[in-house]
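DM from R.C. (forwarded with permission)

"hey, sorry to bug you on a friday — could you get me a structure for this? deadline for the figure draft is monday and I only need the backbone to look sensible"
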Amino acid sequence: MQVLRREEKLLNSSMGVLLGMTITCYLIFSGIMAGPAYAGPNANASVVVDLDPSTPGYQSSRTVAPNTTFQVDIVATGTVTLDTYDLKFQVSDSSKLQIVGTPTEGPFLRSLGGTTLFMPATIGSDTVQITNSITGNDTSLCPSGEGVLAHVTLEMLSATDNATVSFSEVKYFATYSVLDIITNIVGGTVEPAVVFPFDSNFDCYIDYHDLFDFSRVWHRHEEDTGFNPIMDCPADGYIDYHDLFNFARIWHKHCSDTIPITSCSPSVLMANSEKKLAEVKTSGMDMLFSVRLDLDPKTSEIESARLLTSKESVKIDIVVEQVKDIHGLNIDFLFNEEKTKVLQVVKGNLIKDMSFFQVDMDKPGLVNISGSFLGMNPGVDGPGILASVILEVKDLNELVELGFEEVIFADHNGLEQNVTMTAVGGMLRLAVPELAKDSLFQNYPNPLNPETWLPFSLATKADVGINIYSLSGQLIRSLNLGEKEAGFYTAKGKGESNSAVYWDGKDESGKEVASGVYFYQLRAGSFVSTRKMIVLK
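My reply, with the result:
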């Protein structure tokens, strides 16, 4: 038996970087070769470039958006007991496509548990030399078949021209061949993607993937981390309701469709540029749109003022009348943050099916409410409630004014409509102690989780207690306050002289009650009053 060491082969190859290394996958001969037939230069071995490793099957081309980095795999197929490879990977034009960073090792050469010496030597932005070899003495660790040799990261620079990737040099070495056994070397093509407005994953279709991405960059500026310029249409450096209206209008559009919006910026290539963009005719620009505040939604008529106790929470409805085709909206609601606090904003009955609804409370004293239906279907018609603002009232000693800074509607064509705002302001004022009477007020917060305050007022001194009942009438908790002077007990506190009754959401045994509807009943002398509250967890 003759043993031919691999160093002789390496010295005769172009792999000078491995000179002097002991490569220990040996070539074994015993008279006539035992084992597999001699695999000479016609052996079925090849190297391909998989341009889209996430797709099953090897891809020879890929569409990539400009200024996007992506990974390609260098894949070996049809190999015979591979122990060493040496290859030079290159791109056709580094002004269009360039190699980024250092290549990393693929799993194939290590797939049977061997230890490898991976040596990527970057030559430039358009070429990289990669050499790898198994070390050790066990020939059973040299893999056969196919697998990924290395990963290379590329960046697409050009927005107009294709670029190719290929190999200028490839050498394989296998334990049963002293010759290179490459018979097929395959390159690939990378072409720039048509950048479709709002198409964040470049699949040429506007769907829920893009909606999720749009919602994540809502109200971001171009200087903010995570800002995505493809979501900025019109391109004004800020993602706001203008972009939302345009996004909604191309919902479920394909990039082959005529796009019903104008180009967002020179860097955004519009699909079907040879076609005329759909002309949008003005519709309803002279229609009357009105917005009002309903400060007391329990009444049948819209109220412009409301009498409140300190620390009371109140729901204020934003009501529209005589409206038609509201497809999108943007409302800036103003409040006095020193005297009131916004707890929550919820959709009203008119837009209960609105697909995108966003509330932003980042600015002091202002709540921005934006939303839009998705697609080209007509919007909703009024009258009705657009949204409800839940306010918590702090200690008041004067009137608090509420109103709007701006109200914008858009129809299904994305056109912003004129809005006539009538009775848009409102006043909140505190009930004065001189007018105190026996009353039980709504608990706050409501719904509660897990605690709440139960405010009340007394016309005369009385012994006070509150019982809490389940929906079935079972007594849950008794809260006895003892004798209280006449006045208002509405403050959010525990034990202060003007505190409302505090309930921690627990029954008599100290166990938290379940979600559901409960009743609380005030007994003050001969006065009895009952109200409903909701526990929501």
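R.C.: lifesaver. The first helix runs from residue 6 to 11.
me: no worries. The radius of gyration is 36 Å.
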